[in-house]
Amino acid sequence: MEKSINAIRFLGMDAINKANSGHPGIVLGAAPMIYSLYTKHMRVTPNKSLWFNRDRFVLAAGHASGMLYPLLHLSGFNISMEDLKQFRQLNSLTPGHPEYLHTDGIDTTSGPLGQGIAMAAGMAIAESYLAATFNKENFNIIDHYTYVICGDGDLQEGVTQEAISLAGHLELEKLIVLYDSNDIQLDGPLKWANTENVKMKYESMNWDYQRVEDANDLDELNKAIEKAKLTDKPSIIEVKSIIGYGSSLAGQSATHGSPIGKEETNNMRKTLNYNYGEFEAPEEVYQDFFVNTVQRGETAFNDWENLFEDYKVKYPELGSKLENIINGKLDINYDKILPKAALGTTEATRVSGGKVITKLSENTIELIGGSADLTKSTKAKGINGDFTKENRLGRNISFGVREHAMAAIVNGLTLHHLRGFSGGFFVFADYMKPAVRMAAIMSIPSLYVFTHDSVAVGEDGPTHEPIEQLSMFRTTPNVNVLRPCDANETAYSFRYALESKKTPTVIALSRQNLEVKKVINYEDFKKGAYVISDKENFEGILLAAGSEVGLALDTQELLAKEGINVRVVSMPSMDIFKYMPKEYQEEILPSSCTKRLALEMGNPDLWYRFSSNVHGIDRFGVSAPGSEAIKFFGFTKENIKDIYKKL
């Protein structure tokens, strides 16, 4: 065991030294923890690394990738010694922080502190919901743990505290966090920044707490993990370690983020009695991992596969549904399920969105989520009651006022092949942006529903009126932002989000009522922009998104009464439209027509890609009734008509 732990340490040191970049301190200190997890507890299968019932591992302290990659290599995952030598290099399989699906054996991208534990909470919710949905007597088809290794920094992040609070409230008993407690941070001793009583803090949030005094005491460590598996609460095990263990700088912050160098590493080889060269591990270490990780995992996998085959015979309908989830296949007849609003229907798109979520949920067991204590306003609510300890079938997650964690938990749900969604006011997207960005990096189809999408919020004023949030998400790579103009575009937005395989979706919905003014179809909508109303021999184009599409249509009518013909283009998604073929873009926005005016109650800058004239808002909002706020900023058909005529 000691030789195997040292193999992890020294392969990590060799990789960091060769790259001249990385974080050696946690690799040296926490190696016993990750060794124990993978050889004694976690059920994983390197040959079937995406096995659905595997235990999940989240390296919340993603900077410890120099510890994880050697572990995965030794365990038989698709990481070669050459890959370790390419640590942190361009296009390598061993990037600076773990990346989901880029590297074999990585269950989630991690690195931004705080995101990991929150995503792990989402995975644990998913496991519990799926177990309640599919497990039958003698058929525990879904039965696995979510393990986390975190550091002091993770536990100081606000998003972590939100997630831990919610996980304790929900009693996610299969969530186990190993806290690498070394009393050192990047800037110096932990006591410079933190003096909390860890035990009292987490027990007060309904977590089971244990403490292991020495990370190198594998017996005590394994006993603590075994005990954690038996509790009916989430567990945190504080494991006291020494940062930079074995080096002359042990216990010092200098080892946190700077390579210790070849000379020091070679001296450590002598100190720790590891008589092997650079990027070398003995055969007995590979054999240790083969017996205790690979074979143990394959036995578990084979047992599960046989059980699942019997399950599908006895419960064919449930078996088919679970197979769809495993394969990421949604079986939805959208034409039959999605609500269709008649011309003249007038309702807020947040209301329309709530109806769509309910309809889809009734036909899609994968859909689960909720809002941040805003369900009555956002209408974004799951079905079958609240998800609680007593009701693991509930698909409404009462996130509480925890927007930061909510978005990351949705990512955890999505990583577990569910279709997680969140609900919140659009202005508070600022709290959720880090998690949305993570979803985009991981290329997972998380769904973030936002309402109260403009200054039409009204009386709550500038603190609650989004201005720059649309631009924030539209400039984030691999995020589709959809801002529908009516009930039917709203239904299509959810369809597009669920059809997405590799891109998260932001749907921005209105507080105020919007009228269905035109008949539209999904084929046009899914191109990101389309002609919603045309006039023969049009001289100009009005283009808009969301509630401003209706304004553009009203303005079109006013201009027509004066003999001025304009085309109206609805652009529910800039992100989608900009990737359409040039021929289609030219069809919708012909370059010969330069007289264009774009409308949106938000920051105008991105609209200049499509129009040299934009009526937007480049200041913060006002506190007034919504209709007055809209009028104050000039979003009336009379004003837009006058602006257009002056072009």
Describe the 3D structure.
The structure is a single chain. This protein is an alpha/beta fold. The model has no long low-confidence stretch (mean pLDDT 97). The protein has three domains: 2-299, Thiamin diphosphate (ThDP)-binding fold, Pyr/PP domains (Rossmann fold, 3-Layer(aba) Sandwich); 334-515, Rossmann fold (3-Layer(aba) Sandwich); 527-645, Rossmann fold (3-Layer(aba) Sandwich), CATH 3.40.50.920. The chain is built from 25 helices and 17 strands. Helix 2 runs parallel beside helix 3 (65-74) and helix 5 (115-134) runs parallel beside helix 7. It has a five-stranded parallel beta sheet, with helices on both faces. Strands 7-8-9-11-10 form a five-stranded parallel beta sheet, with helices on both faces.
Q: How far from one another are the termini? A: 77 Å
Strand line-up in the sheet with most strands: 1-2-3-5-4
Shape: elongated
Strand content: 5-15%
Q: List low-pLDDT spans.
A: none
